[in-house]
Amino acid sequence: MGKMTGKVAVVTGAAMGNGFGIAKVLAKHGAKLALLDISEKVFEAAEELKQNGHEAMAVVTDIANMAQVKTAIEEVIETYGQIDTLVNNAGVVRLANFLDMEDSVRDFQFNINIVGTWNVTKAALPHMVQRSQGRIVNLSSVTGTMVADEGETAYATTKAAVLGFTKSLAREVAQHSITVNAVLPGYIHTPMAEQIAQESSPDNPQSVIDGIAGGVPLGRLGKIEEVGELVAFLASNESSYITGTQIVIDGGSTLPETVSVGV
Ligand SMILES: NC(=O)c1ccc[n+]([C@@H]2O[C@H](COP(=O)([O-])OP(=O)(O)OC[C@H]3O[C@@H](n4cnc5c(N)ncnc54)[C@H](O)[C@@H]3O)[C@@H](O)[C@H]2O)c1
């Protein structure tokens, strides 16, 4: 018996990166998985889980589109009959300095990271309220809540918004024994981290990755499976008295009080 045995988990943005890591770990702990992603690669992700002996389904869904989200959640209920855990993981980042940022670039990030999280929660929550149980885990970030770099005004705004959403929703649904928590990753080695490295240094993205690793006390970027294990804890029965809070997973990157010289 795994800590997620008998539970159904919906993970958004599960085709790759953190979402796929979370899906793999939840499946390892016994959950049945519903993978939602805008990319068709989500079918390969579900296939990989099935080949490893897990139960998984995939639905191509743009979380910014409420009609698609409703259809996807209905499909999950038709297939599995319940939703125990929702992991709002799908997110995007586009770097641009504030004065140069087109409103369309801002809206792209707001619509996926904030409105998308809102949409999937709106569609899935009634199925948790009905059974007076559930776990919602939202992927925020250390960006916007604790730290920020240039070019991140839109992204940082969305990640802080996800934390505010987490706290307020946790207050509302506690009466139904549903918990809502946020995970705040630092640098995790995903396609998103590679994209940031590529945008920051098109000629030598690896130097950016190495530079980031050098500034992390644990000396490396995080692994998607490490994020998965934290989410699995927050999704399990063992986390029953934790709600409305945030857990940082960053290898200590937000820790240094003094910037090292010469690095
Ligand atoms: N990688 C990091 O260092 C890091 C750090 C802090 C927070 N996060 C957060 O973790 C989450 C996942 O990030 P990642 O690094 O794995 O990103 P990623 O770009 O590697 O993967 C994101 C996934 O989301 C999917 N997606 C994008 N738009 C979507 C939409 N409209 N509807 C459905 N799916 C969509 C993509 O297809 C992709 O599969 C994000 O919320 C991000 O903000 C990541």
Briefly, what is this?
The chain has 263 residues and is α/β, with parallel strands linked by helices. 45% of the residues lie in helices and 14% in strands. It has a 7-stranded parallel beta sheet, sandwiched between helices.
Highlighted features:
263 residues; alpha/beta; Rossmann fold; 7-stranded parallel sheet; 8 helices; 45% helix; globular; binds nicotinamide-adenine-dinucleotide
Task: Give an overview in words.
- The protein folds into two domains: 205 residues, Rossmann fold; 35 residues, no CATH class.
- It has a seven-stranded parallel sheet with strand order 3-2-1-4-5-6-7, sandwiched between helices.
- Helix 2 links the parallel strand 2 and strand 3.
- The model has no long low-confidence stretch (mean pLDDT 97).
- With 263 residues, the chain is an alpha/beta fold.
- The protein is built from eight helices and seven strands, in the order βαβαβαβαβαβαααβ.
- The site of nicotinamide-adenine-dinucleotide has 29 residues, from helix 1, helix 4 and helix 6.
- Keywords: Oxidoreductase.
- It holds the Pfam family adh_short_C2.
- This is SDR family oxidoreductase UcpA.
- InterPro entries: KR_dom (IPR057326), NAD(P)-bd_dom_sf (IPR036291), Sc_DH/Rdtase_CS (IPR020904), SDR (IPR050259), SDR_fam (IPR002347).
- One of its GO terms (biological process) is bile acid metabolic process.
